[in-house]
Fold each of these.
Amino acid sequence: MLNIFLAIVSLIFFTTSCQTMRGDKPLAEKVIKSDPSTNLTLGLVQMTVREGASKNDIISSLGSPNMVTSSGSKNETWIYDRVSTDIQRENESGSAGLEVGFGGSGDVVGGNIGAGASSKSSGEVVVRTQRTLTVIIKFVDGIVSSYQTRATSF
């Protein structure tokens, strides 16, 4: 009977041990929190901002700038500056264990045999990514004369 018990416990141990599961959800489903200012992207800027575009074209696509400066009556500079933080969480589980114990009191009648299996979750991995996008657009007479972009991700 002890052999049958140990065989069952061993079977449970080997079928539940060393299981590691990583999430296979697409990246978009793993994003928990995203800053709403990420609507302004480098791709949108590259599609929208062209030399010869008007202020109205830029505002309708990119929205209001963060800063506007004037140098003279006809020259104006608009600056768009965005910072966003994406947080991704991924759950991991693993490590199953087996507990087997034998105990006795020294006499023939007394004695204990115990067994158990346990599973433990190992927590989650958190990945934070910060991105910045700065767009500088120069206007002469309300028309884009030049623009620059700077994008970082860390």
Amino acid sequence: MKALVYTANQEVTYRDEPEPQPRPGDALVAIHSVGICGSDMHAWLGHDSRRVPPLILGHEAVGTVLEGSNPGSRVVLNPLVTCGACRDCLDGRQNLCAQRDLIGMYRPGAFAERIAIPERNLIPVPGDMPTSLAALTEPGATALHAITLAERVLARPVSEARALVIGAGSVGLLAALLLRDKGAASVSIVETNALRRDTVTHHSDIDTIDPAEISLENSAHDLVIDAVGGAVTRNTAMATVRPGGVIMHIGLMDSGGELDTRRMTLQEITMIGCYTYTPLDLRVTLDKLHHGSLGDLSWIETRPLADGANAFRDLHAGRCAAPKVVLTVQPDAA
């Protein structure tokens, strides 16, 4: 089969790879669409020691079951493979399973024509939904999970909150759209890439901010979502959250820098780390995407899997205006 393989730092190669071999309980899935995640970019740059080349990356995927209990059905892949029996799995927090695995990390990912994955990790796609839109389920679920965690500790409901999202990649933009769907009092996105700011402005009513022009003195946000996760963005989050507010830290760009823990303590600021999602987050997100709750989703860009190397280079160089590039592997079956 053909696959896009991470072969060296800043190199992915479209080449022939062995067919996947399903294990007991696995389904064999033909991939239709798969998004390029920020973590895929992180690996491509050689910044993720967990992803060792040669490796098929990709985990934001939609496909059709070839072998399994429901052949012919279209499915979104839950890329987190967990034990299903530990305390966290039984508590509905499968994302914290100590034995968790992720396709495209230690096992082959979805930048390929086919993949083997446990059947319990498959979520049915509504029959009339384009697979390129269903591929937004995984990043959307990451954003939804962050907002769900934030809702538990916010002093007032989201509908009364002023929210700021840092980063207008797909997770950041979907977080802003989910906050808008929940009726947040105001939602803004900080984004360095002018092309992406223009895309957000064109496709939504979300306010965009150039970080060079942000006024920290007038910032008092109840909720700040850092969808980048760098030293600079953490400092921005701390500077723009109001006393008693909440910072959700999603991004994994780096772990450096210093955090103003004095301000965090004296002003009772809550900072919460947020990792991926639960199976329920994925299903709720897919439903919202299908029913149009998140508005115009035409801000995605689709490219063929064979053009994946150029897509990685364009994303790294900031030449891509789309918050999400989705690679098409096979024709849409919708």
Amino acid sequence: MKLMLSLLGCLMMLSTGLAAEKETRFFELRTYYAAPGKLDDLLARFRNHTTKIFEKHGMVNIGYWVPLTNSENKLVYLLAYPSREAREKSWKEFSSDPEWKEVARASEANGRLVTNVVSVFMTPTDYSPIVEPSKAAEPRVYELRTYTASPGKLDNLHARFRDHTTALFAKHGMTQFGYWVPTDAKHGAGETLIYILVHKSPEACAASFKAFRDDPEWVKVKADSEANGPLTVKDGVKSLLMAPTDFSPAK
């Protein structure tokens, strides 16, 4: 009996340890469109002030990026919170912070820095790794990928990623940063998968995906999973290559 109780205790501890390894935080992917000629000023405001004030109010800075081809003057960044309720509390405190108000006023003395903000609330998938910023010795390229599933096929898409795709990505040298689904209908809840990969360079990204697509295992997995139709809509896969900013925790 003592042995059985001991084994049961060990199993419970193991189960708890495994559960602790799952990503459970609430995430927000924000895209800022800078006014013409104002991107550098916007980056300076984040570098010198905003990120620190975010931290002051309990927001976790995960990563800040600019697209490699940035004709729209975009800044993309990712924040993490304990919950959606914590997110609302943090932003309310941030918005009313006297330090932030003064920073915003001073930085916009010659005009607004941002013309539009798109905010996507997200929760991690059950197969997402823990989202942890890291820095490499050499600059890396981050790839933001967004999939729009065919009607009723999101669960099948998740199953393919969970059971096959993630392992094949790793096989072909892709670092998996995180996988999420939007929580709100206006940003694709129930039909969208968002994830970020990390590559050594744009060329490494292209080489990895070529090897992945040519892999016989992937060819079979794709064919089997799409026997009853494609899992994503036409033109439903979007990719954005991004470079981390100098102040990004993830580099």
Amino acid sequence: MTDINTYEGAPEAEFRDFVALLKPRVMSLVVFTAFVGLWVAPVDVHPFIAFCSVLFIALGGGASGALNMWYDADIDAVMRRTQGRPIPAGRIDGNAALSLGLILAGFAVMMLGLAANWFAAGFLAFTIFFYAVVYTIWLKRWTPQNIVIGGAAGAFPPMIGWACATGGISIESLLMFALIFFWTPPHFWALALFMKSDYHEAQVPMLTVTHGRPATRRHIFAYTLVLAPFAIWLGLTSVGGPIYLAASVVLNALFIHGGWQILRRSEDAALADGYAVERRVFKLSLYYLFLHFVALLAQNLWGTW
């Protein structure tokens, strides 16, 4: 990790630069899945406590993003899609990002403990540590399984939301975790198929770099097959029902079909059309996860089993 400070003559940081440090797109997924986990839990939570819980989970997610950007500033400066981030662009000092991440992390964990319960707060603290240390500092630069193991960090929020309501863990929250955990590799590997040069130049051992695109294609299809049973199983629990099951069956059929299309593609064909299929499957993966959690909400509002 290279310490990147504000470049001489660089524009001064604006408020939006500090917001960008928190990775708002990633935070939106954290907020939504945590909210769903809390909402579908079989415990009534006061609206104010629910709002505060989701807010502090979001701040914890933002803290993770800031710590990630602080440590990965050297990588971000090399990769084209991340060169405009506040630290490599010289708008924010690396030490300022580190301070912001640590302060937000401590504040979020403490306030979640006071607002909800200390089990959920401890879970949030572990999640921040897992993303910032286990994934960012250790796994990301060491193993092509970085996104597989590290994907757990993004899968914890619905479990934290559930823990805010119930104070514990259940099969339902574990399956929500599994849904995101097994979705993460094919989602990111589809992106890596048409972003390989970035990871190669940054010397990040993404699967496409270490094992090549054909192996990555096989892994994507395999993970869509592994993912489907867990996604559908969630529909058979106390938070499931016909709405969720119907949505899950359709979405998994589409995702498996997309994985199959990627598997059958030759590199020449993919290069010829600009990786159109890979880009389409990547976009499908975004809808896949979002619509699963929308279906959980809809099922809860309509009534479960």
